[in-house]
Design goal:
This protein is of the alpha/beta class. The chain is 31% helix and 22% strand. The protein has helices at residues 94-104, 119-130, 167-170, 178-185, 198-210, 228-231, 241-248, 255-267, 308-321, 326-340, 353-362, and strands at 58-61, 65-72, 86-92, 109-116, 133-141, 147-154, 159-164, 189-194, 215-221, 236-238, 272-276, 282-286, 292-294. Helix 1 crosses helix 9, helix 7 packs across helix 8 and helix 9 runs antiparallel to helix 10 (326-340). It is globular and about 50 Å long. The active site is at 310 (proton acceptor). It holds the Pfam family PfkB. It is found in: Cytoplasm; Nucleus.
Amino acid sequence: MTSLSPATPWQAHSRTTANHPAINLSTPDFMTQSPQKKSKRFPSFTLNSTAKPSPPPLVVVGSANADIYVEIDRLPKEGETISATTGQTLAGGKGANQAVCGGMLSYPTYFVGRVGNDAHGKLIIDALVGGGVVVDYVEEVGEVPTGHAVVMLQSGGQNSIIIVGGANMCGWGQSLGDGDLEVVKSAGIVLLQREIPDGINVQVAKAARSAGVPVILDAGGMDASVPVELLRHVDILSPNESELARLTGMPTETFEQISLAVAECHKLGVKEVLVKLGGRGSVLFSEGKEPIKQGIIAAEKVLDTTGAGDTFTAAYAVAFVEGKSKAECLRFAAAAASLCVQVKGAIPSMPRRKAVLDLLQSI
């Protein structure tokens, strides 16, 4: 390969790094900002002179799509035409999903992305702002359309997705501007995915590493090897079992096989691998330490699994930057994902912080 049981009660902790002061972990007094044209300066995290300073933000650099949903009883066979029971267009994309999840969990969240100058772009901007995300670093590009995806939702909540990259892949140019890099370096944590060019992810990961900012790379998106240069600048790699198999070329059907595949990731420089196992829960592998397992928190009814992985990753990131233990991070993420699958759509299903905390207290 050339590139690649219930935890302790939910309590506040403080986290101090070389670059960021300890964070007040009560629910932040976070208010959304109005959408505005991208500026090449770092906006203040306080909205007025009397507001409490917000903690260093969750910064998501990634994709934004218009998700075209069709609900079907089954996938069509080759050459077959079938009818959908319903259809609608909703805001989505792995990056936008994770950003809105951060905002809905009441953590200050910035999104750095590209959309087209079209109706789908406006749909996404509105959804981000509605989810409490600061959109100063979302740039409209006129040459290409907003990215979109066709989501085929089957009975039982399972889905199949086809992505058209659009502005996500063609709207970045060769390098990020100073403003984008500045907000990355000022973050508390950075989230990346693989629905934008690898070269952009590498630039972001290097900038974050230079500033001592932790980076989580969600392995979902591009069906291709992850560049070794990117892996070496990522703190946590977060694949599901099929993505882990694709990245390593190794089977991942059993826990032993997953452990061996994770060991290959460690050899490439990734210290921690957070594997999402769907109905089997999740496992955090830290190099040289015992894995930490987290079972699912059962949902009352599974309506749509779209966005569940993004919810899990973003919720883990929020808990991490708030200073929770790794076991608490996993449990918080599992609760958020459980709430996500009970609502249709990706961004519409992102849970509020209170709902997650209420669920954790009830189990």
